[in-house]
Design a protein that fits this description.
The strands form two sheets. Strands 1-2-3-6-5-4 form a six-stranded antiparallel beta barrel. It is built from four helices and nine strands; from the N terminus they run αααβββαββββββ. Helices cover 16% and strands 39% of the residues. The chain is of the alpha+beta class and 171 residues long. The chain is globular, with a radius of gyration of 16 Å.
């Protein structure tokens, strides 16, 4: 499957060793003081299942997002976890989990995080061959500590940069 291929690629010899930091495993990270009144939010039903698979990832350097590709595995960007070995994961229902960064690939800006607890909802990775320029895409994330932001756009291009295939979107 596409998920297994991506995991295999990231976990291959190209991955860099990450720094271990006992501070992060000693206590949960405190979310930033951004107040959102969730009682006022109305989320379109077609996005609810995706939100349940997404997690906000926090480190002492900041936050970002990722999503579960199986019950205990999160894929995210390498720049989100940087050199941290342990990260805090927050689910859309507010539940906090701890995660361990097991692999990073700076060239592709990808990282794999193992969660200490299973998540019930996962997203399956797609196949580039099934996508076309102009196809609609959705990004759910936490830009600049603005958790659970949903942005809709299109695939704008597919290109190779530094020998790596990239799908460009305007989300």
């Amino acid at each position: 499957s596409a998920t297994e291929r991506v995991l295999s690629m990231i976990l291959s010899g190209m991955c860099q060793k990450i720094a271990k930091d006992p501070f992060l495993s000693a206590r949960a990270l405190v979310p930033p003081k951004v107040s959102v009144d969730k009682s006022k939010l109305q989320i379109d039903d077609k996005y609810k299942k995706y939100l349940s698979a997404v997690t906000v990832i926090r480190t002492p350097d900041g936050s970002g997002s990722g999503f579960f590709i199986n019950k205990n595995t999160v894929i995210t960007n390498e720049h989100v976890v940087s050199n941290w070995a342990n990260v805090s994961l927050t689910l859309v229902d507010g539940k906090q989990l701890m995660g361990t960064v097991i692999a990073v690939d700076p060239l592709r800006d990808l990282a794999i995080v193992k969660s200490d607890e299973a998540n019930k909802v996962v997203l399956e990775l797609g196949n580039e061959a099934d996508n076309f320029i102009g196809d609609e895409v959705v990004a759910i994330g936490a830009p600049m500590d603005l958790d659970w932001t949903i942005t809709k756009g299109v695939i704008s291009q597919s290109r190779k940069l530094k020998g790596v295939d990239h799908i460009q979107t305007d989300t």
